[in-house]
Amino acid sequence: MEKLLARKPRDGRPWAFGTLQLNSFPLDESAAARIITVPLQPISGARGRPPRRPAALAAWPKELNVALGLLGTKVGMTQIFDGAGKMAPVTVIELGPCPVLQIRTQERDKYHAVQLGFKDKPRRKAIRAERGHVAAEFVSKRREGMKQAGVQILEKADCEPQRYIQEFRLDAPPPADIKVGAILTADQIFKEGQHIDVIGTSKGRGYAGVMKRHNFQGMPAAHGAKKVHRQAGSTASMASNRGSGRPKKGHKAAGQYGNAQVTIRNLDVVKIDKENNLLLVRGAIPGPNGGLVVVRPTNKKDIPTDEARAAAEKAKKKGKGVKVEKKK
Asked: Which domains does the chain have, with CATH numbers?
């Protein structure tokens, strides 16, 4: 028994015994003391190894896109030509103007953010809460009670009720020129050549089959196939779901297609029209013409320019052009 205690296990941990009968074999006092003082370890697994230790990091930190953006509507697509005569497809976005409705502070709200509105809403269509959210002089029992109790009333934008309201999270207090009631435009937030993210709602296609929704090949068009030409076929076989008898989670099937939030990242701002509050973005964005979009600076790495790509290709070719003489 002493030899057993002197020997260490493979993983370097102390020996662990779930139950110990001292009467099963004769031991002296010193050997019995060493056995009793062995710390007990939970044993699991076929090899009797202790369970795996929990990870030091419970979860990865959440990365927020802490940047101020604007609300706008998609106008449509067109094409423009640069000075060299090169054509570029662009999407025209009517961006802003957006009034600042509220400013969230760390002291009061536990986070920094700027709340923006977009598109005036007729007062006859706005409910009382929407009118009180922006009106400076608004008669209400709640506001009168707050004044009598000495509670500070937040500053109001004193504008028309807004149809769309969006909050943009920040990691620091906003600049001093951004105050409640200020009007933000495209040229104040963005600049030409900047990379942005555009968030919109894709066009709704309704209930669609697997060929339209997931680009399935479908069943054979002839040679024995009857009324199953556009069906998916078997999707819950032994190979795909290990014989569970039910479809696995997230498997592709017919269903609602479109009408979902889509984010297009790293789009290039080609031009800004200050007079008409228009933003020209290279490429396509989600949603129909007239749909609401949210534009914000991207949090991804910048896309290399054409000059940088050309220089990289030149250096790559130069490195490949070196000939190595083979030994005879």
From this structure: 1-54 (no CATH), 66-96+185-204+258-302 (2.40.30.10), 98-184 (3.30.160.810), 207-234 (no CATH)
